[in-house]
Amino acid sequence: MTKSGWQFQGEQGVFKLKHPEKNSYLYFPLVNEAGMMSAITPNLHGGITSGHNTFLMEPVSVDDLHNSKASRNFWLYIDGYGAWSVSGNSAKQNAAQFVSDEEESEMEAGFLWHKLTRHYAKLGVKAETTSFVPAKDDKVELMKVKITNTGTAPLEFTPTAAIPLYGRSADDLRDHRHVTSLLHRIYVAEYGMEVQPALSFDERGHRVNKVTYSVLGAEGSGKAPTGMFPINEEFIGEGGALDWPEAVVRNREPLATAGTELEGYEAVGALRFANVQLLPGQSVSYVVAMVISDDRLEQGNYASQYLSEAKFDALLQENEAYWRDKLDTIKFKSGDAEQDLWMKWVTLQPILRRLYGNSFLPYHDYGRGGRGWRDLWQDCLALMVMEPNEVRHLLVNNYAGVRIDGSNATIIGSKPGEFIADRNNIPRVWMDHGAWPLLTTLLYVHQSGDLDILLQPQTYFRDIFVKRCGERDLSWSADSGNKLTTVDGSIYEGTILEHILLQNIVPFFHVGEHNNIKLEGADWNDGLDLAPNRGESVAFTAFYASNLLELAELLTHLKDNTGIETIELAEEMGILLDSLTGPVDYESVDAKLALLNRYYDAVTPAVSGKKLKLDIAKVASDLRSKAEWAISHLRSNEWISSQEGYEWFNGYYNDDAQRVEGDFPQGVRMTLTGQVFSIMGGVATDEQVGKISKAVDRYLKDAKIGYRLNSNFGGIQQNLGRAFGFAFGHKENGAMFSHMTVMYANALYKRGFVKEGYEVLNSIYNLSTDFELSRMYPGVPEYINEKGRGMYTFLTGSASWLLLTELTEVYGVKGSYGHLHLEPKLVKEQFDGQGEAAVETLFADRMLQIVYRNAALLDYGQYRIGSIAVNGQSVQFDASGSGALIQRSVLDALPKEGTQRIEIVLEQK
Asked: Containing H/E element for 634?
């Protein structure tokens, strides 16, 4: 398609954007597995860090990107002209860009590198600045600056690299900013300078510090700088600034050489290189390395590894191959090549979430590192098809964060098995947290066929909070450890299945006045955090109900396919399986809560350690009866209508126990979340799904920003959540929140409402790529605001859901207990001119290229699978509706090397 803004180049997802500096808030991620996390902007601004307490450059929020002058910079003092910045980040160039386009600029980026080209034809100088973080074990960001004389006369200049070195915790940005500079110890050596603060001066205490922050550089040939300006105030001069530093503007002689040691000042990695004369057409290059290390550097080692043009180019090539290999585990090929390339950037996003967490990029200025419980499980959805080798271990390990009361730790540390109740030890429970692990584990079981994972033993998380954080157990102390014990003091373990059952059965009894599950601290929408007493989440009552049905089916499959007749559960869990031990009336809120309190008392402060051996069929029956009751309850009590005659499910009750959706004096109130899980989990009948779709189009669909998360509730809602304090149309208050919009599409596809689902997904793509409005690089944002701008780019759980929806629903490639289930839901517009659509993906430890051939260009609903060939050989398959099941044994017989082609011919129904 023809559009303004960035344009794709070639077939690897590389894109270009002319005059990128004319757009605000743009940034690009550069990262590696070693923990180097950077963000870079069109004028080389952005952050460089390895964690909340170790920022090489100053921590930045999005407004700092154009207000702060502290960026990566590289200066030329050009004879006869003066100071010129290769990034355009000088006082003179910043002023000139608003009145003149004399300087041409272009940004180009790929996986995962960033290149800025600036050309000042009048001066005869072109600068190409390429940046990336190598796929190495070091925390290093590399930058190569190539200067070319494009004029007709010799070009003489003096080059200076200038990277401000912040070198401390983000907490020091406004808390003891000057005092912490007094800790700085600055060491100048042959290739650059290092800053090693004497102490870590942050909330963890005043401890001896070893972490070192360095800026090193060399000419492309490997020749070291001629000198340095290590102290910021001396580099910029009295009355100067980083965008007009005296040392460059007046072309001062360097103030320090190798061996100089300084202390007590703000530092800048300002490296002066030898004067240069370039004849017309000639070029010269410089390589700069920004390093965070655990201690002082051996600069010679870093120089030999990184500081030459040949090394830089080789590492860049290696880096491109690394990311290409990672992202080629899933590739889409449809009738829209542009959208297929865009999906490559979406594919990257779940990996970025794993590496950055939800922090360290400019929009994510609230993050301190780590990931939340929900993020952990949702990000695993995409990793399941992209990085499957570690998934089993991850899943088993994650279950150690579950508490015996069905709640869980909410913050996941950086080390395996490290779980925290919450930041600052605040007791809080998100009521939706128990719902996600089953969904992720089921995907794994269906992809792999590995039922044994359900019977793996795992410990439980234990801290001071008990009874879903309703009480503190003062007998517990930090010395007690964070694992649940039995009454005799030994560590208790239960199966993964036991953990899953607990997380889904406990909420069933934890209900409010309307017999829906209590909202507690919030659900998926963290902004609904002001109804902890009487609030209820109807939306997630539907999700938990569908989970109970899924569990019943899973147990039945386990029994039928493994011969397992019984399962062992903690003795106390017999209380929760009430139909087996002492049935209660599910219509009675009091009876449910009384049962739950009996269970809480039984497991506080420890469990007996004894196990119940239960008939697996009876446990499945208990779960099914709970699910069926909940579904009937929701259909009977939460189906509502507006005066205009539209119908949908109410999603919530507020802290005054009032229903929040429907007709109100301020207008109709509706939430998208309340519809998604009712549709996805089968609570809504097919007829109701159709009615919900019409209601969503009426009250939530907006031509400018797509499907809103909610309609305008008309003011703050102190009895529901902080989200309504946000301006309407922003973030969780009525923006197009990508995560829930993608899940809405997923739910529609699941239920066979394919045209409606396609329209939803297409809207997200069109909104994200409309650069005039979205002003974002390729990918899906966390949300689209009222102006149509893409917000909180790169780090969003919606990318996992979008990737999964495209693969498993649109292209219909999914597992069924290890077998391959193919059920495409492609509309005719998604096939190319030859009637083909394809996806490459990992399944059964093999790369599969799955090609759908639709020669007659039939639309969804008109075709079915006619024949299947694997590597040209026809294979038998089990028909399943409009889909087909290929037995795992067929795939296991294929070689693991190379790509195996599965060709599916679609024919008229």
From this structure: helix 616-637
Spatial distance between the Cα atoms of 151 and 129, rounded to a whole number of angstroms: 19
Q: If DSSP states are collapsed to H, E and C, what string results for 276-342?
A: EEECCCCEEEEEEEEEEECCCCCHHHHHHHHCCHHHHHHHHHHHHHHHHHHHCCEEEECCCHHHHHH
pLDDT digits (tens, 9 = 90+) for 859-888: 999 999 999 999 999 999 998 777 999 999
Strand ranges for 578-636 from DSSP E: 611-615
pLDDT per residue over 463-513, tens digit each?
Answer: 999 999 999 999 888 788 899 999 999 999 999 999 999 999 999 999 999
Whole-angstrom distance, CA of residue 556 vs CA of residue 450: 15
User: Using an 8 Å Cβ cutoff, are 47 and 39 in contact?
Assistant: yes
The pLDDT of residue 192: 97
Q: Where are the alpha helices (DSSP H) in 182-224?
A: none
Q: Which residue has the tokens 């800053």?
A: 195
Cβ(506)–Cβ(576) below 8 Å: yes
Rounded to an integer, what distance in angstroms lies between the CA atom of residue 319 and that of residue 180? 36
pLDDT at 566 over 80: yes
Helices then strands (H, E): number in the chain? Answer: 23, 52
Taking CA atoms, 746 is separated from 137, 681, 718, 803, 804, in Å, by 38, 11, 32, 11, 9
Cα(814)–Cα(445) distance, integer angstroms: 11
- Cα 848 to Cα 898: distance, rounded to the nearest angstrom: 9
Please give the structure tokens belonging to residue 188: 């100048």
> Domains in the chain, please, with CATH?
21-327 (2.70.98.40), 811-908 (2.60.420.10)
In whole angstroms, what is the distance from residue 398 CA to residue 383 CA? Answer: 14
pTM of the model: 0.96
The pair of three-digit structure tokens given for residue 372, joined into one six-digit string: 């939340």
The identity of residue 113, as a single letter, is: W
Residue position matching structure tokens 């590389």: 14
d(CA 291, CA 57): 11
Write the single-letter amino acid at 5.
Answer: G
Q: Which H or E element spans position 247? A: helix 246-249
